[in-house]
Write a structure and sequence with these properties.
The complex is a heterodimer.
Chain A: H1 30-35, H2 40-70, E1 87-88, E2 91-92, H3 94-130, H4 138-157, H5 180-183, H6 187-216, H7 229-260, E3 272-273, E4 276-277, H8 287-321, H9 328-341, H10 357-385, H11 394-417, H12 419-425, H13 429-459, H14 465-491, H15 511-541, H16 600-613
Antiparallel strand pairs in A: 1-2, 3-4
Chain B: H1 5-16, H2 23-39, E1 61-62, E2 70-79, H3 94-98, E3 121-126, E4 132-133, E5 140-145, E6 148-150, E7 153-157, E8 161-166, E9 172-176, E10 185-188, E11 195-198, E12 203-210, E13 217-223, E14 228-230, E15 236-242, E16 245-253, E17 263-271, E18 276-278, E19 281-284
Parallel strand pairs in B: 1-4, 2-18, 2-19, 5-8, 7-13
Antiparallel strand pairs in B: 2-15, 3-14, 3-16, 5-6, 8-11, 9-10, 9-12, 12-13, 16-17
Classes of the chains: A mainly alpha, B mainly beta.
């Protein structure tokens, strides 16, 4: 006889639409509903729009970088509208080029990809997927968004201060980031630090909220091993954030002290600036200290940006292959394995820092070990796809694209992880190609997949599939056109972050290839505008989506599109895992997680009646 | 008030926070504001008193009287064996390498026949009584030609414009390392307009380097008066229009260590109106 599981959370049914018991006793004002909203879905959408804005800023900066790399030193008259501190006579100035690639990465990593994955999707999906009315701490959730936005605005403002924005690369190694005498950037560098400190607070608030919500607010029947992989990935990523961000914060505070009160945490005694001894500093610090602290955060950061993408892709692949995820538990353990190992590999970014070769070998081995859980995931995705009854939606195409691109990014990572090979390709365009295959081909492909997949639930309308597919093919082809040749440039010795490689005879012949890559980049950038047009047009004019347009299993698809404030009118009860597709004997090829098994309702009513009468 | 964009940026944001439930956010942003103010770092040099680091704030602006002013001339010589001139290998940059028909030699320690020391900077160090002089409207040009700086050593007045030109078809990076003035560090691709800078404080000397081409260096002596000169190929200098008075004249020459401190020698001199005095210097070879 089936036993009823007591609900973990007992809630009253909302008395009126748009209200729920936690904070729904009154009608929400415009400000409460759309600006300082505490609704996880609204906050998720706020994160989406802010991330899209910063994605455009980061993308625009990438176009500047590609203009310079495609035609170094060329006078682009159409850029003359930019201030003379950025462009002189149409020529992109080296300082602006430095700021452009630094801020491109900064915006993409901290203000586009991270908040898209851990702001938009984490917020929108966690309560809906686990059957909760909202996040555990709605106010903290709201603060998290506003802190992130203020941080982004501060970062953006740094372009307009004297000396311009930070230009030492997104890693901002001292002494370049420490001494304005070296970089020529003073206030802009301080703003970079302050912005990331605030952004870190936002991330921590989000992480605490996600962990608490997942641990405490799962609906009855939603055991950990019935959670969708997207939630597993976000949950583990939140733990990573909680452990990694404080390390970055401490490094940033030390750097800020160095810059403002002239401590010397990262400044050695023997440093020379343009051949002159540095005055006004005690010295005695270590530039390598920053590298250790930064990469202790920085490598988990890579997984912070890829694990949620893996989870999103897993959900979408299963839905559109109409098959259960191959090896669900192995996928969960792989996520955990990648997260744990991610904290033991930071040294592979520092093979060229003069570290003890024995230590380098240790980091090489630990890095190679990450290939194991990564390969488990890849083979399981392939296993999921094998024999599937594919629905070639745009979301599915991007999810498949994610797998393909991630494999290339993962394989090129093995080259970097190998110390003898890294000596040759360190700080060349090989690493730029690698990281873009992981973070664009991986994370951003999954973000696009996620937007195409959950847009109907967010706005109640479908994105235009034709425009979506054009968008996919443009992105897929031009992405490879931009980033695959970077491996060739790297092997050829082209240094990353270089302003004018044609100054070097052994690199000048790469101009043609770089010009081709730049043209691909411009098409890639333009394709994003197509995506944005589709997004905004469909928001108002798209076909109504209905409750479950993809015939998917997870709980959000049992709710109206978009779900009301408070999500569930009654606490849902989960009976099975999220990937029960094409189950033999079941009439439909999907089986929602909360759909009771045959006879369950009758038995439940019988038990209720028994309990009432006797 | 420091030039802090962050402070201005956060004020309207604070003002926006009017909802009572958001008071906490307001407090946190205020904290951020404080951190931001601290983070604004040092005061920009160009906001500071530009009358010269060592001059009196109440200094009067004087004019140079070329008719009645005295002239100080002299020769700077090197005592001892001249250092061997360094041949510069510019082959690392194809453009620079092709810009010279013969192997270029460093300007650092250029000594002509008889020990005449070229590129020594001679100036009135003390005795003007805090007088300052208006900077001329004409700019001093620091050219980058054939991957060398021209001139190698020069004087410039506080507030006078320095134009840095790139006449080469290659990228240069002009990097000044200043103790009193605001340093600048900026790239200059070929074909871009000249960059202009103004020094706001007296400083002898400011080293200027190209970060792309390690052999390129120059020195600027910044003074609040026009009584300075640089020795020519014959080691001679001439300072005109000096008002009558007692002065300390200093001669500076870069040392073999190529640091800004250089090698200096001071001499006292008294001049009357329309006088012509000779002050020679002999610097010891290091």
């Amino acid at each position: 006889m089936a036993t009823l599981v007591a609900p973990a959370i007992v809630r009253k049914k909302p008395t009126k639409p748009g209200a729920h018991d936690a904070h729904g006793h009154h009608e929400l004002s415009f400000v409460q509903k759309y600006i300082f909203s505490q609704d996880h879905k609204r906050i998720g959408i706020q994160f989406m729009f802010s991330s899209l804005f910063f994605l455009l800023v980061g993308g625009g900066l990438a176009m500047i970088v590609r203009l310079e790399l495609g035609w170094p030193g060329h006078a682009f008259k159409f850029l003359s509208f930019l201030p003379s501190t950025m462009v002189a006579g149409g020529v992109i100035l080296p300082e602006f080029y430095n700021s452009a690639f630094t801020m491109h990465a900064t915006f993409m990593i901290f203000f586009a990809v991270m908040p898209f994955l851990m702001g938009t999707f984490a917020n929108f999906l966690i309560p809906l997927h686990i059957g909760a009315p909202d996040m555990a701490f709605p106010k903290i959730n709201m603060l998290s968004f506003w802190f992130a936005l203020v941080a982004g605005i501060i970062m953006f403002s740094s372009f307009f201060v004297k000396g311009g924005a930070a230009g030492g690369g997104w890693t901002n190694y001292p002494p370049l980031s420490d001494l304005s005498e070296l970089s020529g950037v003073n206030v802009g560098q301080n703003l970079w630090i302050i912005s990331l400190l605030i952004s870190g607070v936002a991330s921590l608030m989000g992480a605490v909220n996600y962990i608490t919500t997942v641990v405490n607010m799962r609906c009855p029947g939603m055991s950990f091993f019935r959670m969708p992989l997207a939630i597993w990935a976000i949950f583990v990523t939140a733990i990573l954030l909680l452990l990694a961000i404080p390390v970055l914060t401490s490094a940033l505070v030390l750097l800020l002290f160095d810059r403002t009160v002239h401590t010397s945490f990262f400044i050695p005694s023997t440093i020379l600036v343009a051949g002159q001894p540095l005055v006004g500093r005690s010295g005695g610090g270590q530039v390598l200290l920053w590298q250790h602290l930064f990469w202790f955060f920085g490598h988990p950061e890579v997984y912070i940006m890829i694990l949620p993408a893996m989870g999103i892709a897993s959900d979408i692949l299963a839905t559109f292959a109409r098959k259960p995820i191959f090896g669900y538990k192995a996928m969960v353990f792989s996520i955990c394995g990648i997260a744990v190992l991610g904290f033991f590999v930071w040294g592979h970014h520092m093979f060229q820092s003069g570290m003890n070769p024995l230590l380098g070998t240790t980091f090489m081995i630990s890095t190679m070990l990450i290939a194991v859980p990564s390969a488990i995931k890849t083979f399981n995705w392939l296993g999921t796809l094998y024999g599937g009854n594919f629905k070639f939606t745009t979301a599915f195409l991007f999810a498949v694209g994610f797998v393909a691109m991630f494999v290339i990014g993962g394989l090129s990572g093995i080259f970097m992880a190998s110390t003898p090979v890294d000596i040759f390709i360190h700080d060349t365009y090989f690493i730029v190609g690698h990281i873009h295959y992981v973070l664009f081909g991986g994370s951003i492909f999954a973000i696009f997949a996620g937007v195409y997949y959950w847009f109907p639930k967010m706005f109640g309308r479908m994105l235009n599939e034709t425009l979506g597919k054009i968008h996919f093919w443009l992105v897929f082809l031009t992405f490879n056109g931009v980033f695959f040749p970077m491996h060739i440039l790297g092997i050829g010795g082209m240094m990353r972050r270089i302003y004018d490689y044609t100054q070097y005879p052994h690199l000048s012949h790469f101009q043609g290839l770089n010009a081709f890559m730049s043209v691909c980049a411009f098409i890639l950038g333009a394709s994003t505008l197509l995506f944005l047009f589709n997004l905004f047009w469909s928001m108002f004019k798209g076909k109504p989506s209905g409750m479950n347009p993809w015939h998917a299993n997870t709980l959000e698809w049992t709710l109206p599109s978009p779900p009301v404030h408070g999500n569930f009118s009654e606490t849902p009860h989960v009976f099975r895992g999220p990937y029960e597709y094409s189950v033999p004997g079941h009439t439909e090829d999907y089986w929602p997680q909360n759909e009771p098994p045959e006879g369950w309702l009758e038995r439940a009513q019988q038990m209720k009646a028994t309990a009432t009468h006797g | 008030m420091p030039d802090c964009a962050l402070a201005n940026l956060l004020k309207p944001l604070e003002a926006m926070i009017i909802h009572p439930s958001l008071r906490q956010l307001g407090y946190m942003l205020s904290l951020t504001l404080v951190v931001g103010l601290v983070g604004c770092g040092k005061k920009d040099s160009d906001e500071e008193d530009d009358s010269g680091g060592k001059s009196d704030a109440a200094a009067t602006v004087a004019t140079v009287d070329m008719t009645n002013g005295a002239t100080i001339v002299g020769t700077v010589k090197l005592d001892g064996a001249a250092p061997v001139a360094k041949v510069i290998n510019m082959g690392g940059d194809a453009y620079c390498g092709a810009a010279h028909k013969t192997s270029p030699v460093s300007d650092d320690h250029w000594v002509n026949n008889g020990g005449a020391l070229v590129n020594a900077f001679v100036y009135v160090k003390d005795g003007l009584g805090g007088k300052t002089y208006a900077a001329p409207a004409t700019a001093i040009t620091l050219a980058q030609k054939g991957c060398t700086y021209e001139p190698h050593v020069f004087g410039i007045m506080v507030g006078q414009t320095m134009k840095v030109e790139n006449d080469d078809q290659t990228l240069h990076n002009v990097h000044s390392v200043s103790a009193a003035n605001e340093s600048f560090n900026e790239g200059q691709p070929p074909g871009t307009p000249a960059k202009e800078h103004k020094m706001t404080k007296q400083e002898v000397m400011i080293p200027i380097k190209c970060d792309v081409h390690g052999w390129m260096n120059s020195y600027a002596g910044v003074l609040p008066h026009p009584f300075f000169a640089v020795t020519g190929a014959d080691g001679k200098y001439e300072i005109k229009g000096v008002p009558a008075g007692d002065y300390t004249i200093e001669c500076w020459h870069e040392s073999t260590k190529s640091d800004a401190a250089g090698v200096t020698q001071d001499q006292k001199v008294t001049v009357a109106a329309k006088d012509s005095k000779t002050v020679d210097f002999t610097l010891k070879a290091q």
